[in-house]
Design a protein that fits this description.
Length: 531
Amino acid sequence: MMTQRTKSLIEGGQPFDSPGASRDAGLVSEALAHGLCVCEFDGRLVLENAEFRSYSPAVRARVAELCRATAADAISGRKVRRRRTFKGSLVRQDRTFEVVVSMLPGIIAGGGAPGAAGRVAALVRDVTARERFRRKLVALDRAGNELVHLEPETIEKMHVAERLKVLESKVVRFAHDLLHFDHFAVRLLNENSRELELVIATGLSEKACSIKLYARPDHNGISGFVASTGRSYICNDVSKDPLYVYGLDQAGSSLTVPLKLFDRVIGVFNVESASLNAFGPYDRQFAEIFGHYIAMALHILNLLVVERYTTSQNTTGNVQGELTEPLNDLSAEAQALKDTSMDPEVARHVERILRDVEAIRKRMKNIARGPQTLLGADEAVRCTDVDPALESRRVLVVDNEEETASTIREVLTRRGCAVAVCNDGESAKKLLLQWELSQDPDDGFDLVLSDINIGDATGYEIFASAKAARPDIPVILMTGFGYDPHHSIVRASQEGLQCVLFKPFQVEKLVDEVRRALRRDCAGDQVAPPL
């Protein structure tokens, strides 16, 4: 309820075009786009322009109160605050206003003598848009800091797929909550092929996600144009833009910005809307800022992968160097004992020691090779017990490291599997395509086990080919120290990937995962996601 004092503050103000206000016209001629009023020292409004009269009574009363407070400060000799902001309601909307208050000499009709302090003038600007922009920038900055912030205690327990999944959930949440983007895709640039590979997608159709795009200015959609030029692009009407390719069912407009890292384009962030002219300059600016944080977050994850790989190599090399001398001494002492002892039992034990020393040397060399090796392979190969869960199950192994593929084939074969090996992606895709076309059980497989980086193909391509042949087939991907240059893990994870093995892994771990996948497949259970 409005008080009597409030009513008195907003009543009685005469328009600036009234006869008694003609001398003040020059003071406000440049400010008529904003609200402007003149008050007595007690806050009573005496003059106001049309814009000020359009404000709600509560806003006008608040301005009058600020004028009264400013006059009181001036009279008492306190420091006068000329610029103030406050929030009020205008046409049932929360708005933010900025008020600049100035003391006026008493030159207004009915005021004091010329030169005497007489009244207070207030210039009122509606700065709602500016304030909303500022708040959104602050919120984006906080969201960006959260994107790139990785808690060591949490991250160190995760492999790369889990880390990327955490990042994806944050990107989706912030894009929705802050930018109101619900239909978007993040594509990362494959430096070798120049393909823009889909990493994150939400709200888009399967058709849109399956389109292959390359970083080229022509015939590769707006995303290809943006990736090749490094410039953002607003498409106001997709039906009239020759660059646009299919993205959203019944799409109206789109916004695409490059993901840049150190001025280098590493991908694109594409947003779709069903409405025409849905995006403006502010949306472009916010999307560019958000895209910068996405690029930084992905870069940090890649650095963690590189650090893990390098640290593992350095640690293994240091341990190998430290053990070389003790192993040499142990080998020499055992050989001397063997040469001087005539006891057959002693000789047998010495032989065992020498074999163990050589086994240690071999294992250290294998570990030093990093992701090109499997751990515990010798023991696994010696096992010849057929596993009922694996017996007669057909497995396709795809790995361009021939030694790794050969070891896996031998281990699984000894456990009862029928194993086919491909050392390149092209031959693997041909086998799977043949199966897809024939649907002959003799051409098919019960499980596909593929490395992520095969050279001529990615793990995701093998995954997709296997799923095209049989949608419910379990697929296991392998990668060296979690390295996933083509983001196959994230893409396949969204489509039912069985699990990921990070080299170098124990061969028995592989056997366990193969057994688990085939048991689920046999039971008809839904394949659980790998994360």
